[in-house]
Amino acid sequence: MSDTADTLLLHDSLTRARKPFAPIDPDNVRLYVCGPTVYDLAHIGNARPVVVFDVLARLLRRRHPRVTYVRNITDVDDKINARSLETGEPIGAITARTAAEFERDMAALGCLPPDVEPRATQHIPEMIAIIERLIAGGHAYAAEGHVLFSVASDPGYGRLSGRSPDELLAGARIDVAPYKRDPGDFVLWKPSTPELPGWDSPWGRGRPGWHIECSAMAWRYLGEAFDLHGGGHDLIFPHHENEMAQSCCAFPGTGFARTWVHNGMLLVNGEKMSKSLGNFVTVRDVLANGPWAGEAFRLLLLKTHYRMPLDYAVSRLEEARGELDDFYNALFKAPATDPAAPIVAEMAGWALAPLLDDLNTPLALARLHDLRTLENVASTGGSATAVLGRIGRAWHAAPGQAAAAIRAAGAVLGLYQSDPKAWRQGGAAEGDAGGAEAVEAAIEARLAARRRKDWAEADRIRAELAAQGIVLEDGPKGTSWRRG
Ligand SMILES: [Zn+2]
């Protein structure tokens, strides 16, 4: 990456500044993102970091020969234990089922699986090894079956969240416990009763605290220092502050993650999602709107810059669907063209360039809108002057070329990759094949009626389809259809 214009800038939460992303090993970029605690269906706030870091991973894969993207699954946690007590379902069954549902939901949002998706319960020995290092280094102590991290032993504690010691205490919802030396000390290991999940350890049978899980899995798959740690803004404190303290103290001088990237909150109709407000929206709720809803929700998320708060409303989902309809109509009508033509790569590169500026997806999407306008103008043989003026480039695209650029650039955003014909016919991800066949048969019958000049029958079939919301378009390539 010698060209500075080609440098990727990312806002780093640790230095609170935008800085060039310079991987430790440019041939293998290493990335860790906190994954779900699996006891319930993912809500849309859980989905936002998954989509944001999916786009970042796709972008990095274009720029580096290898990317190792690790996103964990937290399958040991007191919330899981509580759910099991409440419902009677065994813990292992809850976590296996919920993890599978999470993966299914994220795939429906167009997210590629991470390279490694480690389960916390399979990394207990690594957690014990880090805790032993912390005790040996004077950063942790055992007391009454617990092991606690000593916050006072880490002069850097509070660096990531930028909180003063008083604010740290206020934010941590501290449990006052007699075995703590300092109220800010947090749990690395805690004892388990016989009915709770537990593992043998030098401190008796017990289970890990949440923070140590991520330190252990990041260490196992990415090493003592790696390039980028991501997650939602709400994880900065205490989770990421504590992860950083554990890892930096267990492996002195290594620095843990070089860059910390955090996405903003997701609101619902202007309010924070909470159990008490009863306004939780699950990914499953969003997907219930139809086969188009996964891609529409992804577009909705990417229309807001990842660091900004994002307000979800069903009306915004519908709006995103309308935009996707416009794109798929343009892609459907575009003639086939050589996707390897230099102008296609040039236009796609122009559309994606804003991603290098701290992942500016709203601007990249705006440029794709310009390319769609260009495609529409080119394919109707109209004058492209006005469009070209807005783009500020002298592109004289032949019909199909801007569409090919939309497809190429869309692959990095995870958008506009569906089959345009299937999209127009109601979204094709699953189901509905029978419906499509019936429409095709009706179109055939209408064509036959027209051939025998039975105009009344042809019109009747068209009207019958229109009543089902099916719009027919007669064109040089024959009759196509879409749902109106
Ligand atoms: Zn984590």
Explain briefly what this protein structure is:
Monomer. The protein is an alpha/beta fold and 484 residues long. The chain folds into three domains: 4-268, 3-Layer(aba) Sandwich (Rossmann fold); 289-424, no CATH class; 433-483, no CATH class.
Supply the helix-strand structural class. alpha/beta
Question: DSSP helix count?
Answer: 17
Helix content bin: 40-55%
Any idea what the CATH superfamily of the largest domain is called?
Answer: HUPs
How many strands, what sense, and barrel or not for the largest sheet? Answer: 4 strands, parallel
Question: What is the top-level CATH class of the largest domain?
Answer: Alpha Beta
Biggest β-sheet: strands ordered side by side in the sheet: 4-3-9-10
Poorly predicted residue ranges: 428-434
Distance between the termini: 46 Å
Number of domains: 3
Spatial shape: elongated
What's the CATH architecture of the largest domain? 3-Layer(aba) Sandwich
Are any ligands bound, and if so which?
Answer: zinc ion
Based on DSSP secondary structure assignment, what is the total number of beta strands? 15
Strand share of the residues? 5-15%
Radius of gyration: 27 Å
3D structure, described in words:
A motif ('HIGH' region) lies at residues 36-46. It is found in: Cytoplasm. Zn(2+) binds at residues 34, 214, 239, 243. Belongs to the class-I aminoacyl-tRNA synthetase family. The protein is α/β, with parallel strands linked by helices. It contains 17 helices and 15 strands. The strands form 5 sheets. It has a 4-stranded parallel sheet with strand order 4-3-9-10, with helices on both faces. Strands 5-6-7-8 form a 4-stranded antiparallel sheet. The chain has a 3-stranded mixed sheet with strand order 12-11-13. Helix 11 crosses helix 14 (401-413) and helix 12 (361-380) runs antiparallel to helix 13 (385-391). The radius of gyration is 27 Å and the shape is elongated. The model is unreliable at 428-434 (pLDDT under 50). Residues 34, 214, 239, 243 line the site of zinc ion.
